[in-house]
């Protein structure tokens, strides 16, 4: 039954899903404080070391609940080439959370989405939560710009009283638009276990440590 | 002694094993609601991005017990190419469980097998089970078709009273064929630890998250 | 100080280490019940799918203690190509443990080594041991041959009373050679944590599940 | 707020960061007891099996606190080619910790850094620490040289009384330079969880076990 309702929900939201895939890239540019045009050209400057452009992959882990939906995707770091020919992390990777509200039975409004990008240390906090623990993070997406302090985002993860799951809530106060959005998604123990495993898998990649270990083995010739 | 009996069992079941490898593909097609012919042609439409067809790999983790055997294999998601050139998950991956009954001492009947495909969240439930926990999942393989509700599958995982292992049971009620199949496989702590580690390893791949992290590193050139 | 003594021990055992690397392959052939000649030619039949022979890698995790040394290395499964062109696991992978005795202060005798090959389920048992748990495995390396029952190996892992570490012991009774070898290696919590992490890493590879996930992503073209 | 202060700190330390990237290689050479010249030429002898030199990657996990900063990076093992054509680990991998002191509000002095290279077993100790555990390691970087005993390094990891985090401290006593440096970095539960996940990820690579599992699958042709 549970399974059945989930499937129905899937088909009804197929349209908004497709829009989701298309627009995450835009959100990401916004997150990193790029204007639309600058963002586009910056995106075009993203090349693989050998000159090909990277394919984008869309495989979010999405959870649809009564009042809102929540989706998580990893975004890898970018590297700069140093004069020495070596590479260093330029922009750190994140796990990108997107919340969007329910606007009826199993209907969700993607246009009203809000996002939150978890840093490595925030992921560390999430994956080490005990069954009764809680944590909360605060971001200012306009930090270091003239709009600093105008938009305040807080993400809170709170243990359920008895089920072993968590409430994941995002609150966005935007003083420029005079808006205050709040999303609450109850996440079951099983769903949180998926997030924990997937985030644990993604964390070394987000930190760029997979680039150390992807190197071919170093060899020293025998004397 | 334990080891000895396991080996004997292996050789006696070699034949049914070979049939297992050959037929999993069929079951998988069936699972996804394809008729035999449609399934075959659909299978032929599965190509790698560069046009080669993928080799199939058979490396199930199998557990043979007194009344039934249980086998687990991961099945990866498929991706669709979007008009933008990007890829998104089309059909989600699963861990495919197969049960087949014992029909004598160390003889098993592969023709009487039943299957259950664990979703990412169901895998999350399984790998987060505490030593005294239980869980149960319900599937309708004909959901969304005219046969909806005619076949009901339930998978249950229940902690042993004292050993630290689990009973994994599959019950399939088929109202069309008027059949009711039940399999119970007692799984030791060690066997469950293998499943937990292997499922934990497979989960990010089943979700398609390995495709994010398999991308070559993105590079932004220094100014 | 501890560190210092470990380094000294390293240099003194350099010679036996080199012999270790060279002889593990022989032991492995023996383990799989091949005679020396058959073993050699079988080894030559091991090819990569594309015809090149695989490089052998020697990176054992070794622990040197007062009365014996213990070394662990993963050995991957081999695959057979089916008529369909698909691959299935032919010989399962193992983690290969080698014990060899101390014959003086920081001197060890590699010629007196004994081996034990942990199966996937035995690895599952080891990595799920609680701080006060123990387990024991029994192998007959001549099983299914005319020498069945003549050599009996037992590996035991027992929790220390108070330190959080384990005693890992191998006992080999050989009725043909009339020998009875016993090795005991006390393993600290830290060393056992390395084994747990490394075995956990190796387990999906030993099962062959990495071959599922190493496949290029499957693509279904958009209609 | 927390986030804001972290960002400011980042930009202020950008310069010292760049110097960090450039100088880790030098430290590493020193760590392995090479003189500057010998070290340079040894570094030039590091080739990939196919003759290309390896790109260096800089993606440290860095923690900036009131009195000092701490940074961690994995360094992979090097392999020697044996006469047989096989490869064995020559120099084991480590996780390289660098400490450098604060010299004002959010200003740090990279020139006063000290380093500590964690071995596989020391990493095992760190990742298995319980919430109230502590551990301490002692290194002599000049061991086996004429300066043995002149420099003594000790790294200590101690549980906080109540927060669930740890104090990570490095003490370096140099009898040649008559210096005694001490760094203490309080690490939160979240930061330690990142280290635990990243170290757990890196450990099999540091041991060289990824080279076993990176091999193409071995195939035995069907009879």
Describe the structure in your own words:
Four copies of one chain form a homotetramer. Chain A has a single domain, classed as Transcriptional Coactivator Pc4, Chain A (Transcriptional Co-activator pc4, Chain A, Roll). Helix content of chain A is 31%, strand content 34%. Chain A has helices spanning 2-12, 14-31, 36-44, 120-127, 189-206, 209-213; strands at residues 57-58, 61-64, 68-75, 78-81, 87-91, 94-104, 107-108, 114-118, 134-139, 151-159, 166-174, 179-187, 218-219. In chain A, strands 2, 3, 6, 7 and 8 form a five-stranded antiparallel sheet that branches. In chain A, helix 4 runs antiparallel to helix 5. Chain A is globular and about 65 Å long. The model of chain A is unreliable at 1-53 (pLDDT under 50). Chains A, B, C, D: InterPro entries: ssDNA-bd_transcriptional_reg, Whirly. Chains A, B, C, D: Pfam families: Whirly. Chains A, B, C, D: One of its GO terms (molecular function) is single-stranded DNA binding. Chains A, B, C, D: Keywords: Transit peptide.
The number of helical runs of chain A is 6
Largest interface: C-D, 53 and 41 residues
Radius of gyration of chain A: 19 Å
Oligomer: homotetramer
Pick out the low-confidence regions of chain A: 1-53
Helix content percent band of chain A: 25-40%
Keywords:
homotetramer, alpha+beta, Transcriptional Co-activator pc4, Chain A, four-stranded antiparallel beta sheet
How are the SSEs placed, and which strands pair?
The structure is a homotetramer of 223-residue chains.
Chain A: H1 2-12, H2 14-31, H3 36-44, E1 57-58, E2 61-64, E3 68-75, E4 78-81, E5 87-91, E6 94-104, E7 107-108, E8 114-118, H4 120-127, E9 134-139, E10 151-159, E11 166-174, E12 179-187, H5 189-206, H6 209-213, E13 218-219
Helix pairs in contact in A: 4-5
